[in-house]
Write a structure and sequence with these properties.
heterodimer, A: about 425 residues, mainly alpha, two-stranded antiparallel sheet, about 0% strand, globular, disordered C terminus, B: about 110 residues, alpha+beta, GMP Synthetase, Chain A, domain 3, MIP18-like (chain B), Metal-sulfur cluster assembly factor (chain B), Fe-S_Maturation_MIP18 (chain B), FSCA_dom_sf (chain B), Cytochrome C oxidase subunit I (chain A)
Chain lengths: ~425, ~110
């Protein structure tokens, strides 16, 4: 009887490897950033910055999101994951593809290594989209709509990226390479990351805060504004070229973002769990970074100073996306590992609870180190001060080490049971 | 005679309910009784049927909670068949959490 309605969590191999490799990529990202400190005062189209950005968006952001997505889609749509096998294949293709792309950009190996890396990433995105589409089924919830649209935008983004990689070696795109790069970046940030995070948070934040909101319409407005603004931006830029009209489309996207934040604020107001833990504080800080990024946009459009592009990128990649992942990892991974290791032992022997699987104190240290590193890095780039940037990047490496250590603590957790050692 | 059996069963039922206080919701870190997840328990000389719900119908921790219920009851009542029936009506809500559960969750 208990098997009728109860969902089966996806197998560990379809989820946990994403978290493990994502954590390692975060360390790689921070080390590459440290080695590229002097590049952070120049133009963003440089081999090292391209390598850093792709390790951030693919190896770190997308890697963790794939893992979390495979775990959460069944929860959101109340169906089992369509294909754990496709999920596992997408892990291998994404890991290899991201690794190859980052290496190719760092050494600027224009040609087949870069194209192969791009093709592998496209394969991973396609497999992810197929899994998301079939898992969602007839699910028509707001959260699911965002997750499906974000998967489609991811596919669009990585295909455009692959075309750009081909264009570097075999030029064929009639538009300026840098202009297409901007479209690629916009589709990735607004289509993939913003919509995915909107969808997932619309489900998870009420769950974690034990809160609710009746203002579902806000999510509907968010969906139309985020998608509408992005389509208008891309269409106008493609047919008429990039112009200051872009700021108007960014404003539409901004309205969609504010609608989503208002929904979450309503959930926060109507929560029954009043205590806010360190993980949720990470999330709160990440929202501040996202809203700050919108404030930087007029500076980007109003001047030719390339540093604002780097400040914007820092707020989005290192502030917003990283902030969310740093917090949410310890809201999801311990439960995934616990479910895998202790589910069947629950009630049989004394087992630790998921919150005992990681070191809470380290999450607190991680928060302060992350805040310090972020503020210093934004200041360093804004004032073009390499010394400040280097100090900030050392703090970033410490943040990454705290994070990866704590992830390791969760992944390799062991307890003593009556019968011996439990793995 | 029937009264005596009923009394014995009632005592056993109370014992079974008390045992369920040991099953924790791993996510909320509060036992399932104080969370109000258990709706009914039918105790017969041969079997125990627990009718319960989950906080969400595809709760990722659902399987662990159901296993926990079966495990604690099987340990105490070795000669009974343990069954768990999951129901979604009435739908679980925060109002079903006991005063002790609210205290543990830090709900004001």
């Amino acid at each position: 009887m208990s098997d009728i309605n109860i969902g089966k969590a996806p197998p560990a191999k379809a989820v946990i490897p994403f978290y493990a490799i994502g954590a390692l990529f975060f360390v790689v990202l921070c080390v590459l950033l440290f080695l590229s400190a002097s590049d952070l005062t120049g133009h963003y189209f440089s081999p090292h910055i391209l390598a850093v950005v792709h390790s951030a968006v693919l190896g770190w952001g997308t890697m963790i999101i794939f893992g979390a997505g495979y775990q959460l889609m069944p929860v959101i749509c109340e169906r089992d994951l369509y294909s754990p096998t496709l999920a596992v294949i997408s892990f291998y293709t994404l890991t290899t593809g991201a690794g190859l792309l980052v290496t190719s950009f760092w050494f600027f190996w224009v040609g087949w290594p870069m194209i192969t890396g791009g093709a592998l990433v496209v394969t991973a995105a396609l497999l992810y989209a197929v899994n998301v589409y079939h898992t969602s089924g007839q699910c028509n919830r707001h959260a699911a709509n965002f997750i499906i649209s974000s998967a489609a935008w991811l596919l669009f983004t990585v295909v455009l990226g692959l075309l750009l990689a081909i264009n570097l070696r075999f030029p064929f795109i009639p538009m300026s390479h840098i202009d297409v790069l901007k479209l690629h970046a916009h589709a990735g940030l607004v289509g993939w990351f913003l919509q995915l995070i909107t969808g997932v948070s619309a489900k998870l934040v009420p769950m974690f805060l034990l809160g609710k909101s009746e203002k579902d319409k806000l999510l509907k407005y968010a969906f139309y504004c985020q998608n509408g603004g992005l389509v208008l931006f891309l269409g106008d830029a493609y047919f008429n070229g990039l112009s200051n009209r872009g700021l108007f489309y960014e404003l539409i996207i901004g309205v969609g973002t504010i609608a989503w934040v208002l929904y979450l604020a309503d959930v926060y107001r109507n929560r029954v769990r009043k205590k806010t833990d360190w993980q949720m504080k990470h999330t709160g800080l990440s929202f501040i970074c996202l809203l700050s990024a919108f404030l930087v946009l007029p500076l980007l459009y109003g001047s030719n100073d390339k540093r604002w592009a780097l400040v914007l990128g820092t707020l989005l990649f290192m502030g917003w996306i990283t902030g969310i992942i740093l917090g949410k990892t310890f809201k999801t991974l311990p439960f995934i590992v616990w479910n895998n290791k202790f589910r069947l032992l629950n009630g049989k022997v004394k087992v630790p609870m998921p919150k005992h699987l990681y070191k809470e104190k380290l999450v607190q240290y991680q928060f302060w180190c992350f805040l310090f590193a972020l503020l210093l890095l934004v200041a360093g780039i804004s004032f073009a001060c390499v010394l400040l940037i280097r100090v900030a990047l050392m703090a970033w490496i410490i943040t990454a080490l705290l994070y990866v250590y704590n992830v390791g603590v969760v992944l390799f957790y062991k307890i003593e049971t009556n019968g011996g050692r439990n793995k | 005679m029937e009264d005596v059996i009923n009394n014995v069963d009632n005592k056993q039922k109370l014992k079974a309910l008390a045992v369920l206080y040991n099953v924790m919701d791993p996510e909320l870190f509060v036992n399932i009784m104080d969370l109000g997840l258990v709706y009914d328990l039918i105790f017969t000389p041969q079997s125990i049927l627990v009718t319960m719900t989950l906080s969400t119908s595809h709760c990722p921790m659902g399987e662990a909670i159901v296993e926990g219920v079966k495990n604690v009851l099987a340990e105490q009542f070795t000669d009974h068949v343990i069954e768990v029936e999951l129901v979604w009506e009435p739908k679980w809500s925060f109002d079903m959490i006991s005063a002790e559960g609210r205290r543990q969750l830090g709900i004001v």
